[in-house]
Specification:
Blueprint: H1 4-8, E1 15-17, H2 22-30, E2 36-37, H3 54-77, E3 83-93, E4 96-98, H4 104-114, E5 118-133, E6 136-152, H5 157-165, E7 186-190, H6 193-197, H7 201-211, H8 285-305, H9 308-312, H10 320-327, H11 331-343, E8 347-350, E9 353-356, H12 358-363, H13 373-388, H14 390-396, H15 414-437, E10 446-450, H16 456-464, E11 469-474, H17 476-482, E12 495-499, E13 512-515, H18 524-537, E14 543-549, H19 553-557, H20 566-569, H21 580-589, E15 592-600, E16 604-611
Helix pairs in contact: 4-5, 8-11, 8-13, 10-11, 13-15, 15-16, 15-17
Bound molecules: the ligand O=c1[nH]cc([C@@H]2O[C@H](COP(=O)(O)OP(=O)(O)OP(=O)(O)O)[C@@H](O)[C@H]2O)c(=O)[nH]1.
The ligand O=c1[nH]cc([C@@H]2O[C@H](COP(=O)(O)OP(=O)(O)OP(=O)(O)O)[C@@H](O)[C@H]2O)c(=O)[nH]1 is lined by residues 19-21, 23-24, 39-40, 44, 65, 87-89, 100, 171-173, 176-179, 182, 196-198.
Length: 614
């Protein structure tokens, strides 16, 4: 699915989300939208009985929320934002409209009404386009709603009160949060899940596509289709070009009548649809994005290095001054860093306070179970340094990534070795489940993970397969430090650490050899060398499990060119990603048969082959 063009419709506009709901903020920032948050002060007290349907009530409330913010911002700044988004979520059951409970008794009334029955969740959404004419605010509103049906199980009194006492129901429509504990009350959902959570993202994208699609004038020549501009397959009718020319005025019919068409700030009026625009090459937005994409990476890596996400862990919103004090940095500099992190969807910003998004809590806090903090430090350190001198590497024919570690251990200090191991550990913990379960490995009783580093994958394998013994085989200096890492739930007597050199010398005997070294996915000749050694060492019938980082599926389909993930492509040594056919040929050429390849966790190719008899 080609998603970016839809959200990109709003890229050059000042977008405001008129909502205090953290769920809405997260849904939209996860989708890549950049926006400011200005919670609405509109009191949700419209007269429900005066609306023909519950959904009409939700839509009107959403619209009033957005208009209040547009009006207030216009008054304050004398310039309204370009787009204000408002939303309102309600639950409708048996002719009743349920909003957020006012107290525990109210929550009890709502939840007992929902117990054992089906109800509808409506989210009304208003997209208000603003423009200022002669100092006056002019608005056009596009509005819609989405309905999702939810069925609750029968809830016992005890369960009901336990849930209410958890505190979760209080700020949620209908008194439950389907995304958290409330999910346990739900028997089934029909429709958009995110609509229940507070924002119908799919419908919103379709509306954007519809709003920003300018129909071709009758008789006008057909539009040029630029190869670099992907067609939108799900969000139909999005046929304009990327970049500046895509900031066309919304289509007629998309917005309510009664005001001027909004346009992107700092741009001149778009030319008419008379073919002139079609003769212009598109502005190279993608190219410009590639050119300065490193800035976003550096912001993320720097925020990790300064432990911004650790400071915000498990705390309510903190101001820039609070964070600056804790990280020992200037308030101005910290505020700028935090604002960009919020733009990048790493932090939430509301009322001048910052807090971690779910992604940051999961992966950027240093002691999180699935932390990638170590990877960030490694990328910010040796990898950043190597890329700074990329020109030299190209001239000299060296690999693009510093031969990080096991390849050149004698050059590494213990700290450098640990830095690499932390990166590898984070990636392994993140992906171990997907690698371990991509195929049924239960027929194997012994495995050897070559370059197994801290043993994170080995621990997952023994957890999944109760009969399996796993040897972690890696350089002595790595094995020596591996004990300092928490690789699994606890020490397992079925995981053995054996020092040696995977690229020379004898390999420990095993039924299954595993190669999964994601943090230093090296050049082809290295992998081929290791595979040849496995092929020579293992008996006929032994297995080989190989896992590598893979481009997104759509890129793979487009010929593996990895057009839109250069970072992934060069995570290795600058080689193009392999497709399933290439794995098959590679392994068959090395004496393996029955080669199967699969994708796992959206980020990996996992391949399993069996050593053929010589
Ligand atoms: O399963 C879930 N259902 C609903 C929610 C959250 O409930 C609220 C709905 O309230 P409302 O639409 O009035 O939005 P507010 O939170 O008050 O924010 P505004 O400032 O936009 O008025 C909403 O937050 C949903 O996310 C949920 O979390 N799970």
């Amino acid at each position: 699915m080609l998603l970016c063009p839809v959200i990109r419709k709003l890229q050059h506009r000042r977008v405001v989300l008129a909502s205090s709901s953290p769920r809405r903020q997260e849904i939209l920032s996860n989708a890549g939208l950049r926006f400011e948050v200005v919670p609405s002060r509109f009191k949700e007290k419209l007269h429900k009985a005066s609306f023909a349907t519950p959904q009409a009530y939700a839509v009107e409330t959403a619209k009033q929320k957005a208009l209040e913010v547009a009006g207030r911002m216009h008054q304050k700044d004398l310039r309204a934002p370009d787009v204000v988004i408002g939303a309102d979520t309600i639950v409708a059951v048996g002719g009743l409209i349920l909003e957020k409970p006012v107290d525990k008794q109210d929550a009890y009334r709502m939840l007992s009404r929902l117990s054992g029955t089906e109800h509808s969740v409506f989210t009304g959404v208003a997209v208000v386009h603003c423009c200022t004419k002669d100092g006056q605010l002019d608005t056009r509103v596009s509005e819609f709603y989405e309905e999702t049906t939810v069925k609750f199980s029968e809830l016992s009194e005890e369960l009901l009160w336990e849930y209410i006492d958890s505190g979760e129901p209080m700020d949620k429509a209908g008194g439950y949060g389907i995304q958290a504990l409330g999910g346990m009350l739900v028997e089934y959902v029909r429709g958009d899940f995110l609509n229940v959570v507070g924002f119908p993202l799919n419908r919103f994208c379709k509306e954007l596509a519809r709003l920003y699609h300018a129909p071709r004038a009758p008789g006008a020549p057909p539009r040029i289709h630029y190869d670099s501009i992907p067609a939108v397959d799900t969000f139909e009718d999005l046929n304009d070009a990327e970049g500046g020319v895509s900031d066309q005025a919304p289509a007629n019919g998309g917005l309510e009548a009664g005001g001027a068409q909004p346009r992107a700030p700092h741009t001149r009026d778009a030319p008419d649809l008379n073919g002139v625009r079609d003769s212009q090459p598109p502005l190279p937005a993608g190219l410009l994005g590639l050119m300065d994409g490193f800035k976003a990476s550096k912001v993320l890596l720097t925020a990790c290095k300064l432990n911004v996400f650790d400071v915000l862990k498990d705390r309510g919103p903190l101001t820039a001054a609070d964070v600056a004090r804790e990280i020992g940095a200037s308030v101005d500099g910290t505020e700028r860093l935090l604002d960009v992190c919020a733009d990048l969807g790493l932090l939430q910003k509301a009322d001048g306070g910052y807090s971690n998004t779910e992604t940051a809590s999961l992966h950027l806090v240093s002691d999180a179970e699935q932390s990638l903090h170590g990877l960030a430090a490694y990328l910010d350190g040796p990898v950043w340094g190597a890329f700074t001198h990329l020109g030299r590497a190209v001239r000299e024919g060296a690999t693009w990534i510093p031969e990080p570690l096991p390849q050149a251990p004698h050059k590494q200090s213990t700290e450098a070795t640990l830095q690499f191991m932390r990166a590898s550990h984070g990636l392994s913990k993140l992906t171990a489940h997907h690698v371990a379960t991509a195929f049924d490995l239960s027929p194997f009783t012994s495995a050897c993970h070559l370059e197994g580093c801290t043993g994170a994958l080995a621990h997952k394998l023994v957890q999944e397969y109760p009969r399996l013994q796993v040897t972690v085989f890696d350089l002595p200096e790595v094995i020596e430090l591996a004990g300092g890492f928490q690789a699994g739930a606890g020490p397992s007597e079925r995981v053995h650490f054996v020092p040696g050199d995977p690229s020379s010398g004898r390999l420990p005997p095993a039924d299954l050899y595993v190669l999964c070294s994601l943090a230093h996915d090296g050049p082809d000749h290295r992998l081929h060398g290791l595979l040849r050694r496995v092929s020579r060492s293992c008996r006929a019938g032994a297995g080989l499990l190989l896992a590598e980082l893979a481009p997104a599926e759509e890129e793979e389909e487009a010929g593996g060119a990895a057009r839109r993930s250069p970072g992934l492509r060069i995570l290795g040594a600058g080689r193009p990603p392999r497709g399933p056919g290439q794995y098959r040929r590679l392994l068959q050429g090395l004496g393996f048969q029955d080669v199967q390849a699969t994708r796992a966790g959206d980020l990996l190719h996992v391949v399993l082959g069996t050593r053929a008899p010589p």
